[in-house]
Structure formats: structure tokens, C-alpha cells
Amino acid sequence: MDVIIKAFTGVFISLFVLVLGIGIISANINTGKAERFASDSAVLIGNSNFDRQIIDKCQKEAKKMGYELKVQLVNEADSKRIDHGALSLKYKISIPLIAVEQEHCVENDIW
Fold it and tell me: Which residues pair with residue 71 across a beta bridge?
């Protein structure tokens, strides 16, 4: 009887650690995806010379992926020409097994 209890306890703990590991790996993958999306969006916006249509397209794509994308553009002094900008991407990660849900933010400069 003692062996059966130890065996089931070992199996239960092993499954818990396995599911927890999968949750952590999933959160790490989602973080990588968000960081790549922010970087790709910053390059795309910069290469388009800060085109409003491209910014709107990136924001729609971000919303579709569950992110919140904000773009702030900065004009040159005494000019209407946009010199550079800043991109802020908010995303959530979660590990349901241990009830962890956090919001993170990636910030990139746009040149």
C-alpha cells in the first residue's frame, strides 16, 4: 500500500512539473514573438518614412494579435518633417497553472 501512494505521488509531482514547465516555455515564446513584432514594426514604420497608413496597419495587426501598439512621432525643431519616433508595445503573458498573469511593455526607437 505504501508503494502505491509513493508511486502516485511521484507521478502527480512529475505531471505538475511538466505542465508548469510547458507554461513557462509558452510564456517565453510569447515574449519572443512580441519583441520580434515590435522590432519588425519599428523597422517597417521607419522604412516607410513614418507613413500613417503603415502605422495604422501595424496597430491593427497588433490588436489582432492581442497587443497594444502606440507610436509617438517627433518632429524636427521648426519643421513639419518627422525626424524620429518611439514605439511602445504592451502584451500579456500568463501561466495558468500557478495563476500568473503579467503585462509587459517593449519600447523601441524608430529611425
Answer: 87
Q: How far apart are the C-alpha atoms of 97 and 92, rounded to whole Å? A: 16
Q: Which residue segment(s) compose the domain that 43 sits in?
A: 2-110
Count of structural domains, the chain: 1
Q: What's the pLDDT tens digit per position in 27-40? A: 999 999 999 999 99
Tally of residues, the chain: 111
Phi-psi region of 19 (alpha: psi -120 to 50; beta: other; left: phi over 0): alpha
Residue-wise pLDDT for 90-111, tens only, equals 999 998 888 889 999 999 999 8
Q: Which residues pair with 73 in a beta bridge?
A: 85
Report the greatest alpha carbon distance in the chain.
84
Per-residue pLDDT band for 12 (boundaries 50, 70, 90) equals very high
> What are the DSSP E strand ranges found in the chain?
68-75, 82-95, 100-110
Supply the DSSP symbol for 98: G
Residue from 40, 51, 43, 35 nearest 107 by CA:
35
